[in-house]
Amino acid sequence: MQVGEVGELSEIFQWKGEVPKGLPDWTEEEKVHLGEELSDVLLYLVRLSDICGVDLGKAALRKVELNAIKYPAKVLKEEVSFQASRNRNRTHCFCRIISPLLI
């Protein structure tokens, strides 16, 4: 996967701050651009998994199961709540936005 594509996706969120679900404050043009960049990353990721012989669906399900054991829902909610209060007045980067989804 080209690291540049992930960088382009990250740039979209770099100066957005807190991003609410559904992106109500975003223009249609911004949402279309986001969709294009997400698609680029997805296509590279799917291609890379194919080249490497990794069943991406199975790997993702396994990771969700492992994370459920490692990070029980109660602990995760407490951590997300703590991080949200800690970062309330800071600019949020893409990593902070997406990380709860990856755990």
Describe this structure in words.
It is built from 5 helices and no strands. Helix 1 (3-14) runs antiparallel to helix 2 (28-52). The protein has a single domain, classed as Helix Hairpins (Orthogonal Bundle), CATH 1.10.287. The protein is mostly helical. The protein is flat, with a radius of gyration of 16 Å. The two termini are 21 Å apart. Helix content is 73%, strand content 0%. The longest helix is centred in the middle third of the chain and has 25 residues, at 28-52. It catalyses: dCTP + H2O = dCMP + diphosphate + H(+). Homotetramer.
Characteristics of this structure?
cytoplasm, 103 residues, dCTP pyrophosphatase 1, magnesium, Helix Hairpins, dCTP diphosphatase activity, hydrolase
Summary of the model, kept short:
The chain is 73% helix and 0% strand. With 103 residues, the chain is an all-alpha fold.
Question: Unreliable segments (pLDDT under 50, ≥5 consecutive)?
Answer: none
Gyration radius over CA: 16 Å
Would you give the CATH topology? Helix Hairpins
Helical proportion, percent range: over 70%
Number of strands: 0
Please name the CATH architecture: Orthogonal Bundle
CATH class: Mainly Alpha
What order do the SSEs take from the amino end to the carboxyl end, as H and E?
HHHHH
The profile of the biggest β sheet is:
none
Globally, the shape reads flat
- Rounded to the nearest angstrom, the distance between the terminal CA atoms is 21 Å
Structural class: mainly alpha
- Average predicted local confidence, pLDDT: 81
Indicate how many domains the architecture comprises: 1
Number of helices: 5
Q: What percentage of the residues does DSSP assign to strands (E)? A: under 5%
